[in-house]
Design a protein that fits this description.
Elements: H1 3-13, E1 25-29, H2 34-45, E2 49-54, H3 57-68, E3 74-78, H4 84-98, E4 103-106, H5 121-149, E5 152-157, H6 170-189, E6 195-202, H7 208-221, H8 225-234, H9 244-255, E7 266-269
Helix pairs in contact: 1-2, 2-9, 4-5, 5-6, 7-8
This protein binds NADP nicotinamide-adenine-dinucleotide phosphate.
Length: 275
């Protein structure tokens, strides 16, 4: 396994926590690295059984083996979340294996940057498909069992880009605004069912996705990768990137039984960037 993931999961596991999610099955999309892997680690720490979904099976299998050592049941499903049939099958397989998911974390996403003039229809559709349509499809598959059970947590990992504009990422920003809109509308629609629907909006977070942004900035400006990373961090009031574990902790908070009255919210984890 990627040593970065291993270190991050390891640090989460060193803290003990009441297993308040024991017996709950959580599905995390985009679980193999970055924010998704940290969320999987946090939910395992809280005692949830897990289905981890992404496209590349190798890191998923490694992470499942690591998290399984903490005493929860962990399985993985390989699916491209932009392939609605493959995603539906992965969710059906998950329900057959561990029971209907009570927690769905729509985390899989990607950020491609381009000036609007070079945002062609294919790029536009890729961003809407992976960041928005995937959450619609997964939620549509998972929600009926949650409402029938009278308990559920749907958490959409949006972005500060779901709340404000950024240049050169119009398709990503539009998709994440759409994800926030879906969150708010569905939260109201299911408010009386015991299912909460919330969005988390991280700022720049220290993951492989940001490494790609760093490489992009470095390539375009002539800065070194360290300088490009420092440029991103300097734009933040705390002068730093967000850690994936900080996003994961917010997911754990929203999954708690005591968070039942929190729905339709956007929880910003951005070290002051959006204030
Ligand atoms: P990352 O490091 O690039 O990880 C993305 C994860 O999603 C991987 O597990 C990847 O695995 C999976 N994935 C990507 N495309 C997929 C697809 N089509 N089908 C299935 N799985 C797919 O990204 P991250 O930084 O952790 O970001 C996670 C989420 O947080 C995204 O929604 C992102 O928009 C959001 N976010 C990130 C930041 C940031 O600064 N990093 C800030 C705000 C919001 P495979 O490649 O194996 O499929």
């Amino acid at each position: 396994m990627d040593s970065v993931i291993s270190a991050k999961i390891g640090s989460a596991e060193t803290e003990t926590a009441p297993r308040i999610l024991a017996g709950r099955h959580a599905v995390v999309t985009g679980a193999s690295r970055g924010i998704g892997a940290a969320i999987a680690g946090e939910l395992a720490r809280l005692g949830a059984d897990l289905t981890l979904i992404a496209r590349n099976p190798t890191p998923l299998r490694d992470l499942a083996a690591t998290l399984g050592k903490s005493g929860v049941k962990v399985r993985h499903g390989v699916a491209d979340v932009t392939d609605e049939a493959a995603l539906a099958k992965a969710l059906a397989d998950a329900a057959s294996a561990f029971g209907a998911p009570a927690i769905l974390i729509n985390n899989a996403g990607a950020a491609e940057s381009a000036p609007f003039a070079r945002t062609d229809p294919a790029l536009w559709r890729r961003m809407i498909d992976v960041n928005l349509n995937s959450a619609y499809a997964a939620t549509r598959a998972a929600l009926p069992a949650m409402t029938a059970a009278g308990w559920g947590r749907i958490i959409n990992i949006a972005s500060t880009a779901g709340l404000k504009g950024y240049a050169y990422v119009s398709a990503y920003v539009a998709a994440k605004h759409g994800l926030v809109g879906l969150t708010r509308a569905l939260a109201i629609e299911v408010a009386k069912t015991g299912v909460t629907v919330n969005a988390i909006c991280p700022g720049y977070t220290d993951t492989p996705m940001v490494e790609a942004a760093v490489a992009n900035i470095a390539g375009k400006t002539g800065q070194s990768p360290d300088e490009a990373r420092a440029t991103l961090a300097a734009a933040n009031p705390m002068g730093r990137l967000i850690r994936p574990e900080e996003v994961a902790a917010a997911v754990g908070f929203l999954c708690r039984p005591a968070s039942a009255a929190i729905t339709g919210e956007t929880l910003v984890i951005a070290a002051g960037e959006s204030v």
